[in-house]
Design a protein that fits this description.
This protein is an all-alpha fold and 194 residues long. The chain is built from six helices and no strands.
Length: 194
């Protein structure tokens, strides 16, 4: 079962990384286009090289239409895509002010408690994403500029949240088993350092 959960978490992280990389490229292109368009319309460029300014403006260079809409939808998906791998390897940021002073057994129970709580939160968020997904399909809402259906973003985020919820549930059960048995069942025994 751990192998299947690990594969699912890695696939989601890879998909989230691909989407995030595409969004970075899209944002860079949009900023570059916006900058070149501004340069072409600037008084300085029109004064120094009016032919070049006219050519630059004439090329139609500018920001990518709908870049905000695409980034908004893609970031939501990416966030949920990275949750499973973070959950599996216990890589979420933690603040262990008092836990370091407590015995190992108490820390195991605290870890199990918070792992279960995180799984519950992810499941509730997934449930609400599903409700939003169904609502957006029913009302046919689209984005302003690109006119793509909003349910696409909700659906992609819901799938990622579903995987995150399944991985979170598995991790919660495994952490509870670790707390009771004292054995390690998950690869994320270490925590993120701060």
């Amino acid at each position: 079962m751990l192998t299947l959960v690990t594969r699912a978490a890695r696939v989601m992280a890879l998909m989230g990384g691909i989407v995030l990389t595409a969004l970075v490229i899209l944002t860079c292109l949009s900023v570059l286009g916006r900058g070149l368009n501004t340069l072409g319309h600037s008084d300085l460029m029109e004064g120094l090289a009016p032919g070049l300014a006219a050519w630059l403006v004439g090329t139609g260079v500018g920001p990518v239409t709908g870049d905000y809409e695409l980034v908004e939808a893609g970031i939501a998906f990416a966030v949920f895509s990275f949750l499973p791998i973070c959950q599996l390897y216990a890589a979420h940021a933690t603040v262990d002010v008092f836990a370091g002073m407590m015995p190992r057994g108490v820390n195991r129970f605290l870890t199990a408690f918070w792992e279960v709580m995180l799984a519950v939160v992810i499941i509730v968020i997934g449930w609400r994403l599903y409700a939003g997904f169904v609502e957006k399909i029913d009302n046919g809402q689209t984005t302003f500029l690109l006119q793509f259906p909003v349910w696409w973003a909700y659906g992609a985020s819901f799938v990622a949240a579903l995987v995150a919820g399944l991985v979170g549930t598995y991790c919660g059960v495994a952490r509870v088993a670790e707390a009771w048995s004292g054995r390690s069942y998950l690869p994320g025994a270490g925590r993120a350092e701060h």
